[in-house]
Each structure stands twice: as C-alpha cells, then as structure tokens.
C-alpha cells in the first residue's frame, strides 16, 4: 500500500523537477547558499510537485481507466479511494508549503504556488480535455516553475537569470509534451482525449516541434553568454540543443511513433545535461 501511495505522487515527475530545481538553485547561488535554505527549497518544491501530481491523478482518474498504460494506477484500479487520495494530496501540499514558508522567501513561495495552480487548475481541469494545444503551451509554464522558484530562493529576486530559466524550461516542455502525445495517441484516442496532433495535423505539429526546439537551442547558451553560467555550461547547452534540433529536422513526419519515442528520450537527455551543467558550472 505504501508503494501505491508513492506511485500516486508520480515520483518520476518529482525527480525530474528536482533535477531542474537543482540546476536553478546552484545557478543562482553558485554553491554558496546555506544548507538550511537548500533543504527547505528542495523539500518544499518536491512535496508541492508531488501534491500536484496526486491532484492530477484524482482529476484524471476517469480517462486513466480507458488507457492501457494508466488503467492499473492506484485510483482507476480501485486500490486507493478518491477521498483518501485527495487527503493525501492536501497533506503533501501543506507539508511542502510549510517547508517553503519556514525556510525560503516570499518570491519562491509565490512561484511554487503559481506552478501548482497552473498545473492542477488551468492545465488539468480547464484546458487538457478541451484545448490541447493551449494546454501544452500553458502547462509548459508549470514545468518551468521548479527551477525558477529554486533560483529565486537562492538569489532572492527575479532577474535576468530567472527570466532565462523560465523561457528555457518552458520551450523545452512543449516539444517534450508533443512527443508524449504522439507516442500515446492510441491511448488518448481510446479515452476520447484529443491531442494537438489530432486537431491540427501532423505537419503542423512537426513545425511546432522544430520551431520550439530551435528557440530552445538559441536560448540555452544565453545563461553563459549573459554571465550567469560558465563556459562549460555554454558548450554543453549549445551542443545538446543543436543535436536535439538536428534530430527533429532529420526525423520523419511527426506522427511516426518511433520518431516520437526517440525525440522524447532525447528531450530527457537534453534537459538533464542542461540542468546538471547549470549546477556544476555556474558563473
């Protein structure tokens, strides 16, 4: 049962957010911020992200029952009652909020709260089932909340570095999300859930993917150019961004499942490299 509650919080998403948050934190603090601030920021962000994932599972449990990859999750499988899941999500959110309140600044708390609202209310509740392209774009802001919040926790202000992080991680999120939707299009169709590709067509989505990756490749080196990160980060961000773009340009039509799967895996590798290099090579 403990494992089922852990799965309900989507630990893989929590872990991915923590990696990007580490990048943002050390980019801002250069490793000089105190251990208390670090633990409060990382712990609070992780708990609030986990809370958002539990709430997402609660709201999506009806469509999760219809998809092969999600029907065995704890809620659609009936292993955990919805009321208990909601209480669990609220407990995680309160614990995360308490950690952020005790150890970080108001700006960090505001960004984390905004990310939660965008992910749970705007993305999951309002847009996901009605406007898939708008959901992808708006949801990308929630994906950038963790590194931006961690940066502001360590820096104490929203400056050019925070703006670059917001742009960088939001741009990364969009082709990543399109790749997931293409990979899982049969599951989404079984649940009656439209995707941007099904609404706009494969050619249009391929252009969206290439355009956003191109913008990412342009912005990724800017933390080094603008003096927030070191030259090693700049080289790694440039190479990884251009490699991702080259793959997207050379790939077949966007609806190809193998292309989407490889694009998805490459997107994870790219964001991991960028986040780690931010952490180890700040200015």
Walk me through what this model shows:
The protein is mainly α. It has a single domain, classed as Farnesyl Diphosphate Synthase (Orthogonal Bundle). It is 79% helix and 0% strand. It is built from 14 helices and no strands. Helix 3 packs antiparallel against helix 5.
How many beta strands in the DSSP annotation? 0
Question: Main sheet, how many strands, which sense, barrel?
Answer: none
User: How would you classify the quaternary structure?
Assistant: single chain
The rounded distance between the terminal residues' Cα atoms is 45 Å
Q: What gyration radius follows from the Cα positions, in whole Å?
A: 19 Å
Strand content: under 5%
State the low-pLDDT regions, or none: none
Second CATH tier, the architecture: Orthogonal Bundle
List the helices and strands in order.
Answer: HHHHHHHHHHHHHH
Class in CATH?
A: Mainly Alpha
Number of helices, counting only DSSP H or I runs of 4 residues or more: 14
Q: Say what the CATH topology is.
A: Farnesyl Diphosphate Synthase
The count of domains is 1
- Structural class of the secondary structure composition? mainly alpha
Taken from the alpha-carbon principal axes, the silhouette is: globular
The average pLDDT value, as a whole number, equals: 91
Helix content: over 70%
């Amino acid at each position: 049962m403990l494992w089922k509650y852990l799965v309900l919080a989507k630990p893989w998403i929590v872990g991915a957010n923590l990696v990007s948050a580490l990048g943002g934190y050390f980019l801002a603090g250069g490793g000089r911020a105190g251990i208390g601030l670090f633990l409060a920021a990382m712990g609070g962000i992780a708990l609030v992200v986990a809370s958002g994932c539990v709430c997402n599972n609660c709201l999506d449990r009806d469509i999760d029952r219809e998809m092969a990859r999600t029907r065995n999750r704890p809620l659609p499988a009936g292993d955990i009652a919805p009321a208990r899941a909601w209480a669990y999500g609220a407990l995680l959110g309160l614990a995360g909020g308490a950690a952020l309140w005790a150890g970080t600044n108001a700006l960090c708390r505001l960004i984390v709260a905004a990310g939660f609202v965008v992910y749970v209310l705007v993305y999951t509740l309002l847009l996901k089932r009605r406007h898939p392209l708008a959901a992808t774009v708006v949801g990308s802001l929630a994906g950038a909340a963790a590194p931006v919040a961690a940066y502001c926790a360590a820096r104490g202000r929203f400056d050019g570095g925070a703006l670059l992080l917001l742009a960088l991680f939001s741009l990364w999120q969009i082709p990543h999300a399109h790749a997931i939707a293409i990979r899982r299009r049969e599951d989404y169709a079984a649940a009656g859930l439209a995707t941007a590709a099904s609404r706009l067509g494969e050619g249009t989505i391929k252009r969206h993917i290439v355009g956003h990756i191109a913008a990412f490749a342009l912005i990724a080196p800017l933390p080094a150019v603008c003096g927030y990160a070191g030259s090693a980060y700049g080289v790694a961000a440039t190479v990884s961004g251009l490699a991702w773009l080259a793959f997207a340009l050379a790939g077949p039509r966007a609806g190809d499942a193998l292309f989407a799967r490889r694009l998805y895996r490459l997107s994870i590798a790219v964001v991991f490299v960028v986040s780690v290099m931010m952490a180890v090579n700040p200015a």
